[in-house]
Amino acid sequence: MECKKSNLHVLLVSFPAQGHINPLLRLAKCLASKGLLVTFSTTETIGHMMKEATNTKSTNIGQGELRFEFFSDGWEIDEPQRANLATWMHQLKTAGRESFIELINRQSETGKPVSCIINNPFVPWATDVAAELEIPCAVLWVQSCAVYSIYYNFQHQLASFPNPDQRDMVLDLPSLPSLEFDDIPDFLTLNPFDSLRKVILSQFKNLDKAFCVLVDSFEELERETIEVMSRISAPIKPVGPLFRSTKNASVRGDIWKATDDCLQWLDSQSPNSVVYVSFGSVVALSSEQLQELSAGLLKSGTPFLWVVKTPPPDMGSKPELPQGFKEEAEGKGMVVEWCPQEQVLAHSAVSCFITHCGWNSSMECLTSGVPVVAFPQWGDQNTNAKFLIDVYGVGIRAKKTPTGKNGAPVVTRDEVERCIFEVTKGANAEEIKKNAVKWKEAAEAAVADGGSSHRNIELFVDDIQRMAC
Ligand code: UDP
């Protein structure tokens, strides 16, 4: 007898960081819209900061339902954490694992046993829990397929990667363009944070136990890489861009409170005039970089909307904008703590996006048709910048010069001004905009009924249904 979709219960587990919560929550909404019961879970400490999620215990989406439940990471809610990533990851694994198992058992006790777990590979132990409890497990990869391929090749030693003394070496991997030193995630080359490199590579630890690897990308964007990696690693199903397939945008997982009045401010600006500036949820710019960026924004004479967030309690203090900047910026731009980025990128007043090129931000601007000034800082942002600029042709990469403290690379104010001009009014601006619109349309087609990502989601739901019967 065929199991009914309404009896299927999918449990998603997210690593507690904004760049992981967003794609997982979008997938959760997408699956709920297919008529499933979906529970989104992450740690209590971060869940406590996701005010909307904690206030909305349950929401109906189409025929389905989305619930939130949190598990402990062994820390008190207000206790500073993550000072030492390795210790914190260990604690998350021990305390989190136990509390996560209790969460799963609670679902059975209330008559809604979990039929499938979707794991964030940053939390690889959740796949072990699924195997122990004999629950089918899939994975959502929250970076690009190109980055998946680079990490996989490094982890399995399928290619030789340059070290800091081999900056001229070019990395050639199947299906990818030649990558220069600054295009490769620096966790693999400069290794600035060893414990983070370990966490990143541990993502592959349990991938073979998952019945499917979902990716927040789409076939038309990364076809060849998806094919190559599906052959050599695990079957990969691109289901993105997830933010476009989401039926109920009103449920958000923001850790910071978004300033909605920036949308009204955008309403008051001319079409195609505003530079949107954001560096995502983790990057903190040096004071020299803040100085140069703020001077460059003012020098450009272009209105701007700039997100300058206060880091989470344990991750540094609020960046100090240069003295006098706020006064000088009066009437020229708006600085906010956090904004509803998807809506900002969809606003007709926005002309371009100065971005750190996190994968979520990259997908969101690429598929909103917004030209980019790529301003990567570290990690996979370097690779995403390479693809946005040289492969997808939607912008320009800001050049760094070693003018910071101790020769640290900085994007100067003149370079900021030049990039804004080039991407909005320069000789290639028209071509860049044309490419951006092309990718927006391709993304819309991928998530529309019958599109590649839409089909993959349907097939994925069929798989869960088949396994649950
Ligand atoms: N974001 C947002 N409002 C902001 C800044 C960022 O909603 O003011 C969201 C953005 O839409 C994206 C996420 O935060 O979904 C950041 O993820 P990304 O992968 O771009 O960067 P990370 O924070 O992981 O470095």
From TrEMBL:
Pfam families: Glyco_transf_N, UDPGT
Keyword terms, alphabetized: Glycosyltransferase, Transferase
GO MF: quercetin 3-O-glucosyltransferase activity; quercetin 7-O-glucosyltransferase activity
Keyword Plastid: no
Domain Glycosyltransferase N-terminal, chain residue ranges per copy: 8-46
Keyword Ubl conjugation: no
Similarity section: Belongs to the UDP-glycosyltransferase family.
Protein name stated in the entry: Glycosyltransferase N-terminal domain-containing protein
Organism: Papaver somniferum
